[in-house]
UniProtKB/TrEMBL annotation:
InterPro entries: FmdA_AmdA
GO molecular function: hydrolase activity, acting on carbon-nitrogen (but not peptide) bonds, in linear amides
Protein name, UniProt field: Amidase
Organism: Vibrio halioticoli NBRC 102217
Pfam families: FmdA_AmdA (PF03069)
PANTHER family in the cross-refs: FORMAMIDASE C869.04-RELATED
Length: 292
């Protein structure tokens, strides 16, 4: 099985990044990932001010998917997410939705114990591993791995987990897929500015969908289909996610535009993935079993 290590990583997604590996459609491969701090925390004594912020948010890759052509859609199945034994969380007056309420910064080492993450003495949360950053080369220019967009990127959407299928656009030959920023657990919003940031390994495979009309980025978990959009304005991100969902219902389920609108008002759930990145990310989830 092809295995890609963290010796090959990027800080921005771009068509100009040379592919570090080629994989065939439906070939299972694995990718090692740094945490969002590029594994600097332990060496910095878990002191936020001691890390080099020029080295945050790396993504391993990019990977060239054989047969992927401009206009296709990548269907990326996340087969497994393996976590390191230790992660970290941050609360700080420098970032996060509560930065204005805090004074100074605290980095909390987080030990993974069984199926839980110990986020403070005598306080643990259940593990819910997810991939924070996953994306293809954007249509134009370079986009920092710390930012989300139509190419994917730092969506911090907790539905991107083991068993999910992530749909991303192919804007350049091979797609040039990169990923990183694993979280052992994270709630919607990522309110402190971090989840349980952790390194690890992701096992995945990719199918290339030809002439697909699926809106991207999006993610399927069983019967639950989530459509994702990002914008500096959270309201605009929400509107874009709603419009993608509406488009999907019309094109894939042949609903009239008014019927689709009414169905969404009872059968779709609007949510927030994160509010702490350069662009905010909203999502709409529909239950496909309601459409059968």
């Amino acid at each position: 099985m092809t295995h890609i290590t963290t010796k090959d990583y990027v800080y921005a997604m771009s068509k100009d990044n040379a592919a570090v590996a080629h994989v065939q459609q439906n070939q299972t491969f694995s990718v090692d990932t740094f945490d969002c701090f590029r594994n600097q925390m332990e060496g910095a004594g878990y002191i936020l001010e001691e890390i080099d912020f020029a080295k945050v948010n790396p993504a391993t890759g990019p990977v060239f998917i054989d047969g992927a052509e401009v206009g296709d859609v990548l269907a990326i199945t996340i087969h497994d997410i393996e976590l390191a034994a230790m992660g970290s969380m941050v609360s700080s007056d420098l970032f996060g939705s509560l930065s204005h309420k805090l004074s100074g910064s605290i980095v909390q080492p987080v030990e993974i114990i069984g199926e839980s993450a110990q986020i403070a003495p005598n306080l643990s949360v259940p593990l819910s591993p997810m991939v924070g950053v996953i994306g293809t080369a954007p249509a134009e220019g370079a986009i920092a791995c710390g930012s989300p967009g139509e190419h994917g990127g730092n969506m911090d959407t907790k539905e991107i987990k083991k068993g999910s299928i992530v749909y991303l656009p192919v804007n350049h030959a091979g797609g040039l897929l990169s990923l990183g920023d694993l979280h052992a657990a994270m709630g919607d919003g990522e309110l402190s500015g971090t989840g349980v940031e952790i390194s690890g390994k992701v096992t995945l495979s990719v199918e290339v969908l030809k002439q697909s009309q699926l809106p991207t980025p999006s993610v399927l978990n069983g019967e639950l289909f989530t459509f994702i959009a990002s914008d500096p304005d959270l309201d605009k991100a929400a509107t874009a996610a709603v419009e993608k969902t509406h488009q999907y219902l019309i094109s894939e389920h042949q609903l009239d535009e008014h019927v689709a609108c009414r169905w969404m008002s009872v059968g779709a759930d609007l949510g927030v993935s994160q509010i702490v990145n350069p662009l905010k990310t909203a999502k709409v989830t529909v239950n496909l079993s309601w459409l059968k």
